[in-house]
Write a structure and sequence with these properties.
flat; 9 strands; 63% strand; 1 helix; 155 residues
Length: 155
């Protein structure tokens, strides 16, 4: 994976990340977020995977049901965020992939291998986000506790 800083304005950094053939997506994104100390960011991406594992959250089991797709797919849309967690920055992403016949599948991005490329634009926010464990779901969810409320602008 190659990375380049596109913008470095006060409080906001924007990066482009270009993944190479075979790169593991979540692992590389997480390592980049930790190296850059990102704590409040959003990302978008397009490209393709040689294989991907999606997740569907099972409320009763409080766990993701894995949905493996072991074929070449196009990344139609990949959206996600980076927030501070108990173990440092963590990536949460959802993806829609297109199969050769045009069928689309989507869900939580558990793991994926790039082929031939993945183009990610990641923008850091001047405000940090924090994930906290939610006992009802068993998930680490973004918490707005302790943050200033959003300001309304005059219309």
């Amino acid at each position: 994976m190659k990375a380049e800083l596109l913008e470095n304005a006060p409080g906001v950094r924007t990066f482009v990340l270009i993944f190479d053939k075979g790169d593991p997506v979540i692992e590389n994104l997480t390592e980049f977020a930790r190296r850059m100390r990102l704590q409040g960011s959003h990302l978008t991406a397009i490209g393709a995977f040689s294989e991907v594992t999606l997740g569907y959250f099972d409320r009763d089991r409080k766990a993701y049901r894995k949905i493996p797709i072991r074929e070449q797919v196009e990344v139609v849309s990949l959206l996600g965020d980076v927030a501070a967690g108990d173990d440092g920055p963590s990536v949460h992403a959802h993806v829609v992939v297109g199969k050769a016949d045009g069928a689309a599948c989507g869900g939580h991005l558990i793991e994926a291998r790039v082929w031939p490329t993945l183009e990610v634009v990641l923008t850091e926010s001047p405000k940090h986000l924090r994930r906290r464990h939610d006992s009802e779901t068993g998930l680490a969810l973004i918490s707005l506790e302790g943050r200033e409320p959003a300001r309304r602008t005059a219309s």
